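Worked example 4.2. Below are the chains of a multi-component assembly; read each line carefully before continuing.
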Amino acid sequence: MVVSPGKVEIGQGIVTALAQIAADELDLELGRVRMVRASTAGSPNEGVTSGSLSVQQSGRAVRHVCAEVRQIFLSLAADRLGVAIDALAISDGEISGPGNVRTSYWELAGEVSLDRQAAGATPKSSAQRALAGSSVQRLDIPDKVFAQPRFIHDSALPGMLHGRVLRPEMPGAKLIELNEDGARGIAGLVAIVRDGNFAGVVSQSEDGAEAALKALRRGARWSLREPLPDENELAQWLKSQPVESTVIDKKATPYTGTKSRTLRRQYTRPYIAHASIAPSCAMAQWSGDRVHIWTHSQGCLSAQDRPRPRP
Amino acid sequence: MPSVRFRLNGVETAVDADPDRSLLDILRGTLRMTGPHFGCGANECGACNVMIGDQAVASCDTPLWSVADKDVTTVEGLGTAELPHALQTAFIAEQALQCGYCIPGILISAAALLKKNPNPSDREVRTALDRNLCRCGSHNRIVKAVLRAAADMAAQ
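Applying the procedure described above to all two chains together yields the following structure tokens:
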């Protein structure tokens, strides 16, 4: 059974959670469910993978789809075996009924088209679920522990070129001048790309791209911008900024006795970013007028993150 | 181009390349051994750690010439799905990672620790992994997994 959800695995375990839901609803062993990574060509558009919404959104969809699929197979099996649908049971995809009649998903698969309107089959109640709600081992972990390529960084295509982007040393800086001479002299250079403040190099090799980028950086002159606020004084800096205040609620103190002591405290914490340690990486392959892009984006299905042709 | 010879995961290897290039670049780019990962490129994060001899070292910061005639071990050399290292089994058992990008380097640092100290304390594991960053925050599970691997190795 192949499931291609519209949510992406970023180490949060969603692909395993969705596989559990699918296996439960279809009465399959977890190992029978093959999860295919999200793609714009093969997955439903489930928007961005963020906000801890994947189980409730995609999980619910997978549960309903699988309930539907189960029902389709059960009614076909009832028909073929001449048994009432309620008398049938499914165990790891094997469908059996009274009088030792049996068939299976795989035996019937050739006769079933899933390209149809949903009839609204009812998913199992939570008490009937064997896998969802209990911990299983994540499906993606063995590959990561045994260094099987799981990251785009570790993939390669024949004839692949490598790119590097020239970043300013200060946020918001504008690229005033770009002398490309140094970079042009680096072996393996294929192109220098410039579009306003965006500049980058394309090379035949990764170290060629690094060397060309180094040379390009020496030839770049950026406008000075205001530096970022001191990271140790962020709380004070935030408080000193113009504010717009909105009162959400106002409550009178319910305690009417005399105050013996008032505590005033202020707590702050430093700026913390939660993210993967990996540098961003993407890969693209052109064939004819089609382009296939591999990305670690959490939003490859949402319209605003889709690649746009340059005007 | 001069040739640099070393043993990579036990296999005699010769590389014709500029000896000043980083070992990580050679491993990933030339030899297509993609277990060690590029994280920061500045010996700060440990994602590219490999063992040189029995020592865990950042391969991004190690020039190729410096490993001449030495033994280099990457995560690929620790074990396979068929013949896993106790650490790999323990990391699966403890589900000790989220995104997993840092894990090849962490497995190497932990393997180097267990070679020197087969029975480390919780604190010794934390000290040994101090130079390995994990931005997902899997640290506590990682420490548990290393301790579990040490116990499993002692029991064998």
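Take a moment to check your reading of the output against the notes. The longest strand of chain A covers residues 189-195. The radius of gyration of chain A is 28 Å.
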